[in-house]
Amino acid sequence: MSIKKVLTGNHAVSYGAMASRVQVISAYPITPQTQVVELLSELVADGKLDAIFVNVESEHSAMSACISASAAGARAFTATSAQGLALMHEMLHWAAGARLPIVLADINRAMAPPWTIWTDQNDSLSQRDTGWMQIYVESNQEAFDSIILAYKVAEQVFLPCMVVLDAFVLSHTSEPIEIHDQEKIDEYLPPYRPMVTIEPGKPIGYGALAAPDTYMEFRYKMQRAMENAVEIFEKEGKLFGDMFGHSYDLVEPYMMDDAEYVIITVGAVTSTARVAIQELRKKGEKAGLLKFRVLRPFPFEKLRELLSGRKKVAVIDRNISFGHHGIFYQEVKSALYPLSNRPPVFGYIAGLGGRDITVSDVVDIYEDMKKRETLEEIIWKGVKL
Amino acid sequence: MIMKNWQIPEKELLFSGHAACQGCGGALAMRLALKALGENSVATIPACCWTIISGDVLYHALKVPVFHTAFETAAISAAGLKAGLSVRGLKDATVFAWAGDGGTFDIGIQAISGAAERNEDIIYFVYDNEAYMNTGIQRSSATPWGAWTTTTPVKHPEDKPKKNIDEILAAHKIPYQATVNVAYPEDFIRKVTKAKNVKGFRFIHIFAPCPPGWKMASDISIQVARLATQTAIFPLYEIENGRNYTVSYLPPNKLPVIEYLKMQGRFKHLKEEDVEHIQRMVDENLDYILKKHELTHGTLENIPRPEFYK
Ligand SMILES: Cc1ncc(C[n+]2csc(CCOP(=O)(O)OP(=O)(O)O)c2C)c(N)n1
Ligand SMILES: [Mg+2]
């Protein structure tokens, strides 16, 4: 039987990991992620979750422990934020390169200095090219569901997956969540079946030296796995809906059918933008919203299909690539480039370091985009000059 | 040749075709360690010469699996393997980390300290060749005072004493730790076998000569290793629970350090007073260990002084 619980985003993640029957957890505390691992260590200690909790001395070690445990054939989980994710960087490459389907929850937190604990996406986006899949969620329910979905996809393509949620806006805010029936979850997510394992009696070298005559093929295969992951995300997201009542896609349209002007959002700000779009629609605007959910693998086809022929598009980036512009803006533009009827795309930087992005901010952005005649490289929203 | 005292298992788990240099102490160390550990074992190896020695992606020179891991992660990687195997029901597998001195004394020390303090159920081996050999003989904090390396050139040789990693581990009160030397295979096998049968964090510090790094011919590797213990530059002993010290072997006639130093190009530039300085440090260190032994056992009389090793 499924049950309803009122949970913070962090605890939704912990319950998602428990529902996924993770076997080895290793983590290190950092605000705003702490409650994820506090609850998990308690669940393990109380015997409610049959797992080993490796209580390490750093995030670098947390990721290393997950990597080795996964290589030994266990389902491994960790969670972190900002500095912790940055410290893991070397091992994030290791996890992906070793083709280990680890799941990590990153509670988006802006990078220091100056010290901050509030949300933005520069921590997770700095890891974009490590070979991890990345899911950005909008709600606590989606956080819970996405942990399960992440394992389901990761264990088919043998790539690790990051589930990303906003600091405080989600991590520390309570929402009613449906904890699905465990038997059905077990049916959806069967036990992990590793490709190869490190275990006695199997004398193999795993991750040994690859000279130029062999290395490149390993990377080619990683890219192919990513490409296949698009379809698997679609398929598993649909199946999730059939079994649990809410399906997921890589990009999700909202009021897009006849939309001429489209706003693209990522993460919790999507909920805010939904309200803005409703308001704009009431005023007779042909406004639409595109929620960007999965950044890697990149949903080229869906994105092109949904955006081609629109009048204009605005991307709201809670992140920045210094010296360039918003990262989702870059990604969307490059995906649309081959289209002959591509719309002009405008990039807005907003909400860095947890600054609120309000409904009226989104409405402003919409109106600003509509007015603009020429493309600007970067448009700042809400910066105090 | 008197071979009758030797009790080295014949079964080999390291095979020819590995990529070590001639006279590599690290390769011999693995060969000996595997004889004691047996096939119900898995290894994790961070960046070091052994990354290369074990073979590339196409072949593998060991009869046990090796997980290759990042430079500073050997200890936690072993703990992660142990956790993963345990949840799969493979609880009796011996999991060991196999790292160089750089990966142990320097960049890996945080993860080692963490794993030791948590008493993770693994064996940590450091094969100590006293420098970063894989990257071309740069100093590590295991490089002894006075030694030449490519980052401590002859005009400015290493001016800090070797870090005392054994005391650092002892401070963690781990159940078992020992120093071993590839030139003393019986002692080596005995201690690794003992370590294998202890639960919790175990640490084996291996003296492993490196002919190219130490600027000496490969055929004197064992001779030099043996001199390291005979001069007490590398004493052989065990520590249990960070408290009980047992010296495994005392040379019947302790030789002056110059006998060891003069064999190696890396010490060629040393002046007489440098050698005296090293002698003083070595004597002090041996004295300290003997005092700990006496504190543990109430006597020094029980330390073996086998003629055999002379
Ligand atoms: C994070 C990181 N920094 C540096 C290196 C480069 N590196 C590879 S092996 C090595 C030296 C290893 O020295 P040691 O641990 O003593 O083992 P040895 O090579 O002597 O066997 C270095 C510096 C690396 N692989 N990773
Ligand atoms: Mg070394």
Question: How many DSSP H or I helices of chain A?
Answer: 13
Ions and ligands: thiamine diphosphate, magnesium ion
The structure class of chain A reads: alpha/beta
How would you describe the shape of chain A? globular
Write down how many β-strands of chain B occur, each being a DSSP E stretch of 2 or more residues. 8
Average pLDDT taken over every residue of chain A: 97
Largest sheet of chain A, described in full?
Answer: 7 strands, mixed
**How many distinct domains of chain A?**
2
The number of helical segments of chain B is 11
> What Rg of chain B do the Cα atoms give?
18 Å
Any overview of this molecule?
The complex is a heterodimer of chains A (385) and B (310). Chain A has 385 residues and is an alpha/beta fold. Chain A folds into two domains: 3-197 and 208-244, Thiamin diphosphate (ThDP)-binding fold, Pyr/PP domains (Rossmann fold, 3-Layer(aba) Sandwich); 251-380, Rossmann fold, CATH 3.40.50.920. Chain A has helices at residues 9-19, 34-45, 59-71, 82-87, 89-97, 122-125, 140-157, 182-188, 215-244, 269-282, 300-307, 327-336, 359-371, and strands at 3-8, 24-26, 52-54, 76-80, 103-108, 133-136, 161-166, 174-179, 205-206, 251-254, 261-265, 287-292, 294-296, 312-317, 345-349, 379-380. Chain A has a seven-stranded mixed beta sheet with strand order 3-2-4-5-7-6-13, sandwiched between helices. Chain A has a six-stranded mixed beta sheet with strand order 10-12-11-14-15-16, with helices on both faces. A two-stranded antiparallel sheet of chain A has the order 1-8. In chain A, strand 15 (345-349), helix 13 (359-371) and strand 16 form a beta-alpha-beta unit. In chain A, helix 1 (9-19) packs parallel to helix 7. Chain A starts with a strand and ends in a 5-residue tail after the last strand. The model of chain A has no long low-confidence stretch (mean pLDDT 97). Chain B has a single domain, classed as Rossmann fold, CATH 3.40.50.970. Chain B has helices at 25-37, 49-53, 74-87, 101-106, 109-117, 165-170, 185-196, 211-214, 221-230, 258-261, 272-297; strands at residues 41-45, 66-68, 94-100, 123-128, 176-181, 202-207, 236-240, 244-249. Chain B has an eight-stranded mixed beta sheet with strand order 2-1-3-4-6-5-7-8, with helices on both faces. In chain B, strand 7 (236-240) and strand 8 (244-249) form a beta hairpin. In chain B, 35% of the residues lie in helices and 14% in strands. Chain B is α/β, with parallel strands linked by helices. Chain B starts with 24 loop residues before the first helix and ends in a 13-residue tail after the last helix. The A-B interface holds A 23-24, 26, 50-52, 54-58, 60-61, 64-74, 76, 90-91, 94, 198-211, 214 and B 39-42, 44, 51-52, 54-58, 60, 62-70, 72-73, 76-81, 83-88, 90, 93, 110-111, 113-114, 117-118. Magnesium ion binds at residues 100-102, 129, 131-133 of chain B. Thiamine diphosphate (TPP) binds at residues 26, 47-49, 71, 99-103, 129, 132-135, 140 of chain B.
